[in-house]
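EI: anyone free to look at a 222-residue chain?
SC: sure, send it
EI:
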Amino acid sequence: MVLGNTLNVCTARKRGRPKELSTAERETAILDAAEILLAKSGLKGASMAAIAKAAGMSKRTVYEVFPCRAALFEACIRRIRLSFVKPLDDETRKRPLRERLLALFDPETRVANIAGPKAVLRAVVVEAHAHPDLGQIFLREGPNISRAIVRDELVRAQQAGEITLPDPDLSAMMLCDMVFENPIDHLVDVDRPPLNEETAKQRLNVALDIFLNGCRSGTASA
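SC: here you go
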């Protein structure tokens, strides 16, 4: 009887034991916590200890996933960037250029989760002077790689004879500036509402109309 009771207790404990998270699940939980802390407390408040506590993990577990805060911040920016510019898969690359660019800049995920990126950007701008290394990570993993992804797609289109570009890097930068809202508006006016999905898609289509018509006109200066 004692053995039976002991077995029942052990079974109950086993059933009640928290599920062990996979590495990917731990990474997601840590990044979620980091974004929340960055939004609430800025870079100063987003220490590894604070992130671990917010994620419900030990600091040791956080360091097992991310060896340092810079690596964690880099992953955070990379995840945000993927909601703005999505690299295309092989199947999508077979579509006409306009469809490829629509997929590249698809605003659905970006609009649904815009509060996090806005808060992170505000934290970086406020504290970049005190944390220049994190500011450089933001630029490298955010705007710079986003523009590089767009540039590579435009270069492929030019090589296929779909468009004519005088300068792929400058063209990619200008297209991104046309597609995305100016972040200064949101940094200065903290209560400014983000674009809804319908308006974001309308802006994207107008930007592509202007950009592609210009690239195909053959009147661009060398």
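EI: The two ends are 90 Å apart (CA to CA).
SC: 👍
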